[in-house]
Amino acid sequence: MVARSIHYSGPFRDKPFIPVDCGSLVPTLIESELFGYVRGAFTGANQAKDGLLAIAEGGTVFLDEVGELPVDLQSKLLRAIQEKEIRPVGSTRRIPINVRILAATNRDLEQAVTGGAFRRDLYFRLNVLSLRIPPLRERREDIPLLIAHFMERASRASAQEKILSDEAVKVMLAYDWPGNVRELENCLERTCAFTSGPLIHVPDLPPAIAKTVVLMPGNGNGHSQNKIVPMAELERMTILSAIAELNGDKLQAARLLGIGKTTLYRKLKDYAIHA
């Protein structure tokens, strides 16, 4: 999602965006997928095929899980990036390329470099600009907005408005989400699919999430305060906090929150907050 945002918000937006899942491709096929091949290069190559690096000409290639690339292919990728050219499998001809490379990994590449599993020169070639995407548990303020987004989509798909109870929202805010946004999306899609009524309660959530313990702050006399914060209020707090952090820049806040500026202004109007 971040890679797509970078691509479609920049000067390459009208050019191709090609995602490559390096972790799911068969190692023997990665080279031909990236660089292409000529007819007769191997058994079954009945016709030539362009590689993804050539197809993305002028655009962006997103190498997801780049840490899974075999070491021998890492050297060929490094040469392609450095020389801005590729050689299809079975060909003696080099083809110039003009693409931007974005790469992502959940592995510790510095440790992989030390252990010899990742080339040091490729690591430094890719690591020109590094962005760390914090896990969802470190940005819980995003959870209400993500819930609202996925619930709206699920409601359209089922032609029935789906609403989370306040208790369910509290449980989802307390859960650590080891699978991050994908797990949150999967949780809501699954829950909406298996819930017939419009209101979703804690027992309707997947068992691993439903059993999450919600710790409430004490009130100083040994008793907890069982205060329920509606999802709309959590969303309001998140939006206002983002605008405050950006010194009132609403357009930038809308972009970072992943909502349209029209939606943001409508919500601010609903909150009766004006410039």
Word description of this protein:
This protein is mostly helical and 275 residues long. The protein folds into three domains: 2-126, Rossmann fold; 135-229, Orthogonal Bundle (Helicase, Ruva Protein, domain 3); 231-275, Homeodomain-like (Arc Repressor Mutant, subunit A, Orthogonal Bundle). The chain contains 13 helices and nine strands. The chain has helices at 2-8, 27-35, 52-55, 71-83, 109-114, 120-126, 143-158, 166-174, 180-193, 207-210, 231-245, 250-257, 261-270; strands at residues 17-21, 36-37, 49-50, 60-64, 85-86, 95-96, 100-104, 163-164, 199-200. The strands form four sheets. Strands 1-4-7 form a three-stranded parallel β-sheet. Strands 2-3 form a two-stranded antiparallel ribbon. It has a two-stranded antiparallel ribbon with strand order 5-6. The longest helix is centred in the middle third of the chain and has 16 residues, at 143-158. It is elongated and about 65 Å long. The model is unreliable at 218-227 (pLDDT under 50).
- The rounded Rg comes to 24 Å
| Residue share in β-strands | 5-15%
Secondary-structure element pattern, one letter each: HEHEEHEHEEEHHHEHHEHHHH
CATH fold group of the largest domain: Rossmann fold
> What's the count of strands?
9
Key attributes of the depicted protein:
mainly alpha, Rossmann fold, Helicase, Ruva Protein, domain 3, Arc Repressor Mutant, subunit A, three-stranded parallel beta sheet, two-stranded antiparallel ribbon, 13 helices
